[in-house]
Amino acid sequence: EDKVVQSPLSLVVHEGDTVTLNCSYEVTNFRSLLWYKQEKKAPTFLFMLTSSGIEKKSGRLSSILDKKELFSILNITATQTGDSAIYLCAVVPNQAGTALIFGKGTTLSVSS
Amino acid sequence: GAVVSQHPSWVICKSGTSVKIECRSLDFQATTMFWYRQFPKQSLMLMATSNEGSKATYEQGVEKDKFLINHASLTLSTLTVTSAHPEDSSFYICSARLLEQFFGPGTRLTVL
Question: Considering only CB atoms, which chain B residues are within 8 Å of A90?
Fold first, then answer.
């Protein structure tokens, strides 16, 4: 059965800290991996990763995929209270018209 | 990026009534849309895959007679929660997929 596992489930850090969120997967017919940030409403898109070893970067956030070891990490440097959210990892199957396979998410709380 | 809208954002209804939620893709055509449900502090749970012009595909454990899905056009899918009960209170999110998956802002349903 396909699955996506995120760790840790929950994390509390101080402002300014750097955090690394993990996502491992076992999915047949892998196409790509997505990271989302969810605050009070629906998830907002962060990154799409398709190729191994190529870092995607957006401001203080970065992410990389390892298709050999079947995992991805999301890094957030110099965290701010506004980074507090649930971070969701999802795998896109290669089959057209199929839904994403979500992990349970990592809840990040950044205290000032 | 692509935009998906949902209406209404929030609805409160009495037990036993039916509630319709609309999901629209605003700037692209979506032959497939997805409906998710999210309970507090949990990840998104896929309810069903909505296919334009054909019957929706429901996930195991989701009652198709209770959660009616109609995907009548390439830009609109509707989810009707029939005879809603308090346990149906949840956050309902729709999405449509191009390369990545775009989410609507969600509909918070509260059944009294």
Answer: 101
Residue A55 · residue A62 · CB < 8 Å? yes
Q: Are B49 and B57 in contact (CB under 8 A)?
A: yes
B20 neighbors B78 (Cβ within 8 angstroms): yes
As a whole number of angstroms, the distance between CA A78 and CA A60 comes to: 7
**Residues pairing with B96 in the sheet:** B33, B102
Tell me the residues of B at the A interface, defined by beta carbons under 8 Å apart.
Answer: 1, 31-32, 34, 41-44, 46, 49, 51, 93, 97, 99-106
- Considering only CA atoms, which of B28, B32, B26 is closest in space to residue B46? B32
Do residue B99 and residue A32 have CB atoms under 8 angstroms apart?
yes
pLDDT of chain A along its 112 residues, tens only? 889 999 999 999 999 999 999 999 999 889 899 999 999 888 888 999 999 999 999 999 999 999 999 999 999 999 999 999 999 999 988 876 678 889 999 999 999 9
